[in-house]
Amino acid sequence: MIPVKCPHCKIGLKVDEQKIPEGIASFKCPKCKQDIPISVLDGKQQNRPLSGTDTVVLQPVKKGSGILTVHKSVDTPEQTFLLQEGLFIVGRKASVSKANICIETADKLMSRNHLRIEVKKNPQGGLIHSLSDNHSKNRTLYNGRYLEEGEVIVLKNDDEVVMGHTSFRFNE
Asked: Please, which residues bridge with residue 168 across strands?
């Protein structure tokens, strides 16, 4: 969330930059209905001084970015994680975990480094999300079937993955 002040009515807003689509130049103020401009900064421009009317979005969601939504259960609160380009190890949050997506859960059947998701660009500029089990003790269930050792699958919208008793849904 980033703080934004409407340049017209001066109302303070909190904007979830992950929900702003790529390519828009402004959005409507919920109070005065005037346009609020958006300045998208790339890595080269992030240190430039800002004027008082700029709304800054540091990392807009690229088309095709994936989202993992962990389902709420007795042991686990609902959680959401954004997947952009790179390698992600997903597992149970613990002090000795090497995971970079740490799920808060009391589910001991989920390994601390349970699975891998690799996000790469495809030739069309979109993103491909590849999933594989990371040598977990209790394996990974993908859309109702266990992944085999070394098997790599490409995630699709609405795929469901289960680690131990904890499940999450993948969405683009």
From this structure: 70, 161
Separation of alpha carbons 44 and 79, rounded Å = 32
Residues 6+ apart with CB under 8 A from 95: none
CB 119 within 8 Å of CB 100:
no
Alpha-helix runs per DSSP H in 74-161: none
Reading phi first (left if > 0) and then psi (alpha if -120 to 50, else beta), residue 125 is in: left
pLDDT at 2 over 50: yes
> Which are the contacts of 10, defined by CB distance < 8 A and separation ≥ 6?
none
In this structure, are residues 103 and 70 in contact, taking their beta carbons and an 8 Å threshold?
yes
Does residue 32 register a pLDDT over 80? yes
Check residues 144 and 61 and name the one with the higher pLDDT: 144
Q: What is the pTM of this model?
A: 0.62
